[in-house]
Design a protein that fits this description.
The protein is mostly helical. It has 14 helices and five strands. The protein folds into two domains: 139 residues, no CATH class; 103 residues, no CATH class.
Length: 272
């Protein structure tokens, strides 16, 4: 059966080719305006980086690329999956910062729009999603999670970012940061524990056990609260338990949020 051009274009993605296209568009895109004619990185270096909250110690895009391991030389040699995500995240952040500090009488070349569209397409094909935190001036890539997004939307700003961050690709294997996030969510859980117990007592009990026995709230590796089970876990096994705890916490927060909706339905049922 003859395939049309759209069938062909939707075939399995050639990641190496797509990244090459993105890099080319990133280099070709320009900003135009009164006395302005910059590439993205030139504009970022000249007009934006000193204003960006997240520049840390870097003073140029070149220095930032070197520290991230995504220089042009690195790209030519080939990037592994994690470095590809780093590159895409770098491009998205530089684009966002430049856009935020762009003069009103300026405009981007057509390559800028195509660049963003291509990055979005590749991110989606990798089963990741783009999360933008405007107040923090930060854009991150995380694995798609409808539950995490839903919980982040009902949390305060201080908690929303860690909820999303837990799924960040660089946190794989980072038990220390995952533990910090779980401790933060544990505090939120305590504030809602009474309501959650009234909805799903067994879920609340299971979460409490995990928080208290997996070296999250307490030192379960040594001392009076040590647990043999926890002591014998490998880092990989402990991370799996941390991930399960995270998912159960998300479930608990969503159940608590839905309590009012369920009551509303019950009231309706009485009237019908």
């Amino acid at each position: 059966m003859r395939r049309n051009i759209f069938d062909i274009l939707e075939e399995e993605m050639n990641l190496e080719y797509e990244i090459e296209t993105i890099v080319n568009l990133f280099n070709e895109a320009r900003i135009y305006g009164f006395n302005i004619n910059y590439s993205i990185e030139d504009y970022f270096d000249q007009e934006c980086i000193h204003l960006w909250k997240n520049r840390k110690y870097v003073t140029s895009s070149k220095q930032m690329r070197e520290r991230l391991g995504i220089t042009n030389e690195d790209i030519k040699e080939g990037l592994d999956d994690k470095k590809i995500l780093v590159l895409l995240e770098y491009i998205l952040n530089v684009m966002a910062v430049c856009n935020a500090y762009m003069p009103e009488d300026s405009e981007w070349s057509k390559e800028f729009e195509m660049l963003y569209q291509n990055v979005v397409n590749v991110v989606n094909s990798l089963n990741y999603e783009i999360k933008v935190f405007e107040k923090e001036e930060r854009t991150i890539l995380v694995e798609k999670s409808a539950a995490a997004t839903a919980v982040a939307e009902i949390m305060d700003e201080e908690t929303a970012y860690p909820v999303i961050e837990y799924n960040h690709y660089l946190l794989k294997g980072d038990l220390s940061r995952k533990k910090q996030i779980l401790k933060l969510l544990a505090d939120k859980f305590e504030g809602k524990k009474k309501q959650i117990k009234s909805i799903n007592n067994s879920l609340a009990s299971e979460i409490g056990c995990l928080l208290n026995k997996l070296n999250i709230r307490h030192n379960n590796v040594e001392g009076e609260k040590a647990e043999v089970f926890t002591q014998q876990l490998s880092p990989e096994e402990l991370e799996e338990w941390y991930d399960d705890t995270y998912q159960l916490l998300l479930l608990a927060f969503l159940e608590e949020d839905n309590m009012k909706r369920r009551q509303k339905v019950k009231d309706l049922q009485r009237q019908l």
